[in-house]
């Protein structure tokens, strides 16, 4: 966990990185919905065939202990419990014939299931 200067005070931030493509796509989705009051949240929850499952969604809530990072106007939130699991992870957006959607490359994952939705 690192800190960033925010209005002269120290603000806690997370170590998730968002590619330019992912930031552009997420902003476009929010613009399409006409929402400027939401942020992108990445969370880790128990579940899936490998033990832990990613959740990536737009959220208007701010949870106690949330860690934020700004990407050209797009806020990305990670709750304190999920932060250690996704520290150093890179979120990208791919749009190819074989695959379309957000991907997460997580150096903390020891392995994942075949579907790619869960990890351990």
TrEMBL record:
Q: Where is the Core domain?
A: 16-117
A single GO molecular-function term is:
2 iron, 2 sulfur cluster binding
Q: From the UniProt record, give one GO term of the biological process aspect.
A: iron-sulfur cluster assembly
Check the record and name the SUPFAM superfamilies matching this protein: HesB-like domain (SSF89360)
Extract the InterPro entries matched here.
Answer: ATAP, ATAP_core_dom, FeS_cluster_insertion_CS, HesB-like_dom_sf
Put simply, this protein is called Putative iron binding protein from the HesB_IscA_SufA family
What organism does the record attribute this protein to? Actinokineospora spheciospongiae
């Amino acid at each position: 966990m690192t800190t960033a200067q925010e209005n002269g005070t120290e603000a806690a931030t997370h170590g998730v990185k968002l590619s330019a493509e992912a930031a552009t796509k997420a902003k476009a989705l929010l613009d399409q919905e006409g929402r400027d009051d939401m942020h992108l949240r990445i969370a880790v929850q128990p579940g899936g065939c490998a033990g832990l499952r990613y959740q990536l969604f737009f959220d208007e809530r701010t949870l106690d202990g949330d860690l934020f990072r700004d990407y050209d106007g797009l806020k990305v939130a990670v709750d304190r419990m999920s932060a250690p699991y996704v520290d150093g992870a890179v979120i990208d957006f791919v749009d190819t014939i074989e695959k379309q959607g957000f991907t997460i490359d997580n150096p903390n994952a020891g392995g994942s299931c075949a579907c790619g939705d869960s990890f351990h």
